[in-house]
Known about the structure:
With 171 residues, this protein is mainly β. Helix content is 2%, strand content 46%. The longest helix is centred in the first third of the chain and has 4 residues, at 3-6.
Amino acid sequence: MTTQAALSLAPPRVITTGHNPAGTSVFEAEAAVPLFRPLGPAGPGFGRFHSRLVVPVSNTTSPPDLSKTIPRAPPNGVIFCSTDIAPGAKVPMHRTLSVDYIVVLEGEIVLLLDGGEEKAVRKGELIVQRGVNHSWENRGTEICRMIVVMVGAEKVVLGDGTVLEETVIKR
């Protein structure tokens, strides 16, 4: 893969289904999702595909447009999104109040935890992340694309009563 290709993947294409007035299944939408880069052009790119503020969801209403926000699961909701991280890039340490189901779709990424542990996660491998303080680092030569489903979760409460709060990545 060339250096230019390694720094850019095609935007994710999302196909959405639904129902017509008679209740027959139909394709409602198809679109490439542009990436939102709140930390600048070299920072991570986020694609938000679908989000709901509460679960269970309605399959007859449209989701809110949160395409220009850093993905965070609503407290009682769910979000389906992607994250692209360029070679050499690192995402700061942060904690989300969610359980995150993650698939590394392209490239590889190093998942770092606040206790100093780290694991390399490769294309096709999966992560179940449960409200931990973490960062991402792409030590490879290709862009890493992760597909993520985040589900709102309760705050983690330690045995001594300490509550682990969400942390926010600063722009």
